[in-house]
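Just scan my protein:

. . .
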Amino acid sequence: MGEQVITEPQRTYLLELFSALGPAAEGLVLVGGHALRFMVARPRATRDFDFVLDVAYLRGSDVSLVSVLESLEYKVDKNARNFQFQKPIPNSPEVMRIEFMAPAELARKDGIRVDVQSGVHGRACVGGSIVVVEADAQEVIGFLPDGTTARAQVQVARPHALVLLKLLAMDDRYHNVRGPAHAGHDREEAGTHAADIVAVLTAQTNLGEFRQGFARQFGQDAVLEGRAYQIIRDYFGDEATPGLVLYGESLIATLPSGETVRDLDRELRRAQRIVSGLLLE
C-alpha cells in the first residue's frame, strides 16, 4: 500500500532522506497530513512531512540528522530555526518541507523547543511521547533521484494517536494561541484538523476497537486523558459545538457541485455522532 500512498515527486525524496538516515530513520514517526494518507481513501493534498522524534533513540544514534540534511541540500527555515527544513525538488515547482516535533515533557524551560541533537530541535508536542510508542512501520517503495529502486520502512502514527494530536492542535488553533496576527490562518487550520478527525474516524471499520485503542493510549496520564475527552465534549458534544462549525466551514470550502445545504446538515449530524462516540460512558 505504501508505495502508492506517498505521491511523486515527494515519494522519491522521502526515500532519499530515509536511505541517507539509515537506522536513524526508525526515530522518526510520521504524523500530519502525510500520515493521513495511510488511513483514508481520499486524503487531502499536502506538501509537508511532519515527524515526531524519538529523542532518546536519536540521541543515542551515531547518525547526525543535521549532517544528513545538509548533505541532501536542505536549508533551515529561518522562521523556525532547527526544527523546519526544506529544499526545492529539482525540475519541479514542488518542495520538500520537513518539520520535527518532540515530546513536550522534554522541552527546554521556555516550553517551546526540545534539544534533540546538535543543530536539530523538535517543536514541543503534547502527546508526542504517546505517538512515539503508538506507531507502526509502513513500507514505501519507489526510486531514488538517480533512478535506483528503493524501499523504506516508515514509522506512521496509529489512527487513534493521530486523532489525539489533531484534537489538541484543533483546540490550540481555535483559541488562536499564536495571537491576532495569525487569526485567519489558525481558524483555517482548526477547520482542517476537525475535517481530518472526522476523516480518520470515518475510515475505521471497527469503531469499538478504535475507541478502546484511543482510551488505552493514555496509560497513567490522567491529565492528558482528561483534556482530550474534554475537547471532544466541547467541540463535538452536541450539534451546536465549535468542532462542527469548523468542520462545516471546511466542507463549504470544498463543497462539490450538486451538494445542498440539506446534505451538509446531514453530514454534520453524522460527524457529531461519530466523534462524540469516542466519549467514555
In short: The beta strands are 28-31, 48-53, 75-76, 84-88, 95-103, 113-117, 120-125, 135-143, 149-157.
